[in-house]
Amino acid sequence: MAALLRAEGVGATLGRRQILSGVDFSLAAGEFVVVIGPNGAGKTTLVRRLAGLLDGKGAIYLGDQKAEAVSPRLRARKIGYLPQGHVFHWPLSVADVVALGRIPHASGAGDLGVEDRAAVLAALEATGTLEFADRSVTTLSGGERARVALARVLAGEPQIILADEPVAALDARYQFIVLDLLRARARAGAAVMAVLHDLSLAARYADRLVMMDGGRIVAEGSPEVVLTRQNLAVTFGIRAKIDTVEGQLIVTPQAAL
Ligand SMILES: Nc1ncnc2c1ncn2[C@@H]1O[C@H](COP(=O)(O)OP(=O)(O)OP(=O)(O)O)[C@@H](O)[C@H]1O
């Protein structure tokens, strides 16, 4: 299937450090790709580079157009970026925060139309945040805020979703709900990439896994191909038990090496 997002030989330098180098990556419509890697591997940097928030070597394409040739407004409509550990600084209501996700679609006056309101409501419902739609985001728990941040992204109905640790703050039930939601977006035709730390969840949800280390992609493919004892030892520095239970790969980290 044609890639909605493609990176060719991308790099990024932060401070004076080369953080990413020579990364080739693609994300097709209908695909759910999960990126894994140890702390400092460059996952967030890759997500930010793909989202157009960092410059660097290489090229990024949206469809067959270079990303920088696409207007910022259209880019914002196409790409939904969920940052890691998003912090809200303003005491806006949850409904208003989620409505911000419609800004790239707004008319000149910025008013919400019928479609906008429907998308906001659907995102609130899907993320279980409708029940506190009128509350200020600053009064919510960490997991509740994380779901509001996701709702804002979903409200924009982007073709491409780049989610950096979307379930890190969530309880076990909401981890499934949110990953089911992201997978459903992919099945409905979006191209979805998520960074996850839980390797069993990564295996369960990924159509394709991308393992990073030292700013590079070190393994890529099906969970069975990527999540080997050897790769987990070399890349994560862990000894792990790998089982298949009811067709699902389960990774149990056992010790740091
Ligand atoms: N502004 C900066 N200046 C120098 N180094 C930076 C800067 N920002 C990030 N880094 C470094 O770049 C490397 C990659 O960071 P990045 O946030 O992409 O890692 P990550 O894989 O997302 O890690 P984590 O799992 O901890 O979130 C890290 O070693 C980090 O310290």
From TrEMBL:
Transport as a keyword of this entry, yes or no, is yes
Q: Which Pfam families match?
A: ABC_tran
Q: Is Ligase given among the entry's keywords? A: no
Q: What keywords were assigned to this record?
A: ATP-binding, Nucleotide-binding, Translocase, Transport
User: Mind telling me which InterPro entries this protein's record contains?
Assistant: AAA+_ATPase, ABC_transporter-like_ATP-bd, ABC_transporter-like_CS, P-loop_NTPase
Under the heading Gene3D superfamilies, the entry gives:
P-loop containing nucleotide triphosphate hydrolases
Every ABC transporter domain range:
5-239
Q: SMART domains recorded for this chain?
A: AAA
Molecular function (Gene Ontology), one example: ATP binding
Name the job this protein performs: Part of the ABC transporter complex HmuTUV involved in hemin import. Responsible for energy coupling to the transport system.
PANTHER family with a match to the protein in the record? HEMIN IMPORT ATP-BINDING PROTEIN HMUV (PTHR42794:SF1)
Family to which the UniProt record says this protein belongs? Belongs to the ABC transporter superfamily.
The name this protein goes by in its record? Iron complex transport system ATP-binding protein
The source organism is: Kaistia defluvii
